[in-house]
Amino acid sequence: MSAPVPPRPPRPGDDPWLPSTRPALPRPALPPDLGRRAKGLGWLAVQGVLGFVAVLVLLLVFGILLALGWDPAGWLIGITLILAFLGVARTAIQGRRLLTPAPEVPLAQAGPEDDEARLLRLLRSGERALPPAARPAFHAAIISTRDALRLTSGDEALGRDAFDARQAAREDLPELLHTYQAAPRTPDAERLLLNQLDLIGRRMGEVVHERRGQHTRTLEAQRRYLESKYGEGEERE
Question: Which listed residue, 42, 46, 134, 191, has the most CB atoms within 10 A of its CB?
Fold first, then answer.
């Protein structure tokens, strides 16, 4: 087994996942589909207002006709009230759906893209929650885990490398950040955080180093095969 390779601390500009050099302003975590839901609620409110105005006008017109002695207007008033009730029920159901956040993908069904999206959200939240001294180690562990996820995403069987990468993305790193946020801010807590981040980063660095070495050896073997296959033909000519 190759020697452990510690992850390189990230530098601004060499990876699109790295945070901006500007200080991050604290902001509440918003659901990813907030814009779509807000737009839907706005359009639903417009429909509700227009429907209310239309029903009010129809009831007024039919009421006048009924007062003038036109008997079918009573039936039309009843039909209008039934339609208004159905419209209110439909609006309430759609509003409830829009106010309910979309369910998260279960971890057992999560794919590489879901794991990367979860890691990216974790990176952004860590930028605001962690002290400046711990951010480089946190960034390095996140980036190493992301690279390990990408390099093991094509594995047909769930081996040790793929399992460790998924565990780090789905459980270890989120739980570590949550535990640190819940603990008192002391030097010991920061030291323990850095130690655990270093452990995760080193393991992910080993996975990345080993997988990249495998890819390099595969390409080298293919190069030798092609040289032996086509090089001999050139020599015969």
Answer: 134
